[in-house]
Amino acid sequence: MKHYLNYIDGQWVDAEQYLTVINPATAMAYATIASATIKDADNAMQAASLCVQGGELSQVRPAIRTTWMLNAAQAIRDIADEGALVLCRENGKSIIDAKDEFLEAARYFEYYGGMADKLEGTSIPLGKNYIDFTQYVPMGVSVQIVPWNFPVSICARSLAPALASGNAVVIKSPEISPVGMVYLIKALQKAGFPKGAVNLLCGKGSTVGSHLVSHKEVDQIVFTGSVPTGQRILKDAAARATPSVMELGGKSAAIVLNDADIHKVINSVRAGIFFNAGQVCSAMSRLLIHQSRYQEIKNAVVAMAQSLVIGSGEHQVDLTPVVSKEQQTSVLAMIEQAKQEGANILTGGFAPDLPGYFVAPTVIEATADMSIAQQEVFGPVLVMMPFEDEQHAVDIANGTEFGLVAGVFGEGLNPTLQIAQQLRGGQVFINEWFAGGIETPFGGVGLSGFGREKGQEAIYSYVQTRNIAVRL
C-alpha cells in the first residue's frame, strides 16, 4: 500500500496518525494517508493568509494568473491516466469516469483561466466633480470542503475560480476518497502558483473540518455535501458572518409527458440514476410519467435496469459499487423502509453476492408522500409514479424540501418550456438529463443550498465589490 501526505505551504507533510483508504470494489485496504491535525489546519490557514497578505497571487497582473491556470490545466491532463487508476480504486467508479474527472478538472482551469483577466469593474456617473468606479477584489482565504463522490472535479470547480480571482485556498479532502485529490495538487505544483496559494488537508470533518470553518482567518466557506453537515457549517459561518457557497442534497424529478421519446427517457434514466451508482447530488431519483405512457415506460425502465452489468470499475461494467459499507447499509435500509411503507420493489433492492459494497440497480413504485420519494438516497435507486395532468406532475416534482435540478421530456416546445419555468430548482434539463456543462450555472434552492458553481456566474462568488468614490 502507498502512503500519501498533506500539502501545506508548498510542502508535503506527514502525520503521526494515518487514515486507511478502502477499495469499495473489494472491501480491502488500498492506501493510507496522513491524518491532519488541528496544528496542520492552523499551519495551512497561516500559509494561505500570508499568501493573501503578501499579494503574490492577488496583486500580480491578472494575465499572469491566466498563465498559471493554463499551466495547471495541462499538468492535470498529463497526470490524468495515473490519477484515474487511483481514483477508480479508492472511490469505486469506473476507470473511464475517473479519467473524465481529471479531464473535467483541467477544463475548469482552462475556463476560469480565461476569466482571470476579465473581472472588470464599472464606472458610475455622479456628476461633474466626481469619479466613481467599482473593483472586484478577492475574498481572501477560501476554505473548501470537498465531498467523496466526485472529489477531483468538484474540488477543481471551486478551486479554479477561487485561484483565478486571486484567493488563497485551504481544501479539506474527504477521508473516504482523498487520494485522487493528491494527484490533482501534484499537478498544480507544476503550474507556478505561489507558496500558500493551495493547501490540502485530509482529516476528520468533525475535528479538522469544524476547526477550519470556524477559524479566525477564514474569509469564505465553500461546501458540497449532506444537508446536516451543511447546516452545522452554516451555524459556524453565521457566528462570524462568513460568506458561504452551499451545494447540498437533491431529490430531483423528471417529468415524462405523453409525447416523450422513450429512447431519450431510457438513456437519461440510465445516466441519471445509475451513473456513479446513483451517488450524484443531481441524480434523477424520481421519474414521473403521464398515466397514458406509464406501463410502457415502466416496463422499459425495469428491463434496462435488469440488463446492467455490475462489477468493479476497472472492468467494462455498467454499475459500480457505492463508496463504503456505511453507504451500502444506508441505501439498503432506505429500501427496506420503503417496503414497510407499502412501496412496490419492481427490481433490485438487495446487495448482490459480490465482494465489495454493491447495491443492485433498484426501481421502486411509490407514492409522493413516502420517505423514499422525499429523502435523498444517494444510491442506484429510482422511484417511479404516474401523474394525471401537467399541474399534478409539477406539484409532485416541487413537493420536496429540495430544489437542485429537475427535468422534462416531451416533443412540444411550448409545454416543455412552460413546465420547466414552473419547476423549483437551480437547473432544469429538457430531453436530456445532465444536458448542461462547465459553462452552465449550477446550484440549488431550499435544502439544496444557495450560491452557484460553474459558468461565468460562479466566479463572482469568489470576489467582493469595492466601490471607490472620488470628490475632485
UniProtKB/TrEMBL annotation:
It comes from the Bacteria. Keywords: Oxidoreductase. The active site is at 247. Residues 12-467 form the Aldehyde dehydrogenase domain. One of its GO terms (molecular function) is oxidoreductase activity, acting on the aldehyde or oxo group of donors, NAD or NADP as acceptor. InterPro entries: Ald_DH/histidinol_DH, Ald_DH_C, Ald_DH_CS_CYS, Ald_DH_CS_GLU, Ald_DH_N, Aldehyde_DH_dom. Belongs to the aldehyde dehydrogenase family. This is Aldehyde dehydrogenase family protein. It comes from Pseudoalteromonas arctica.
